[in-house]
Amino acid sequence: MSTESKGIFNWLYIQLFANWKKFEVIYISCLILLQFVVYAIAPDSIIGMISGVAGVLCLIYGMKGRKINFIFGLIQCLAMTYVAWISHAYGSFAMDIVYVVSQPIGWFMWGHDEATHAFSKNVRNGVFLGAFVAWAIGWWILSLLHGQLPYLDSINFVVSIIAQTLYILKYKENWSLWIVVNFANIIYWSILSIQVATGASNIGNLGAGLSQVALQAALLFNSVYAIKVWGSGEADNEGGTEKA
Hints:
mainly alpha
């Protein structure tokens, strides 16, 4: 094995396996297992399951502040664009296109700044107010496009853009916005799943919907925990892997 190959292997090993707490290993295992359980219940969307597992891994490694999260993020976004399209979740579809583009940008940005940041109280309040106004405008636009549940889909679209931008720039406030997005998405995908299961709608499929419910529940838990991790500085310097 060449020196370059050894360096890549060592980087991957440290990124994936270094500095994990027992609690984190347990909850990660549970969240990934949840995706396979959902697939076993409704095995009609392997793409949905791939999106769910990759999404869990992306945000978990993001919570740890590790650059490798963008690799899993790219996989999740590509799979999710398909799920959103077949479900007529146009806000989600548009957002996933943004996510695909943002992954290499995030990879580059995190490679040049290892510290997390935080806004002042006034700036933070302004960001949250701007997110609320953007949500209302997105709701109106998606209603004109006859998208499904536009009041919820708008959160997934416009609020996610703001959250993803803050995430790429490593501002801790991104996780507060993700909590809003994840909670709204649990409701959104639950409603779509119920509509498919009861025959009220033939758009999308049950497996894809349930996989997204499970994914968003996992990401909600992860976002809450990430506030603690980023607030304590544990996510700086690749989540401490530079010392591993």
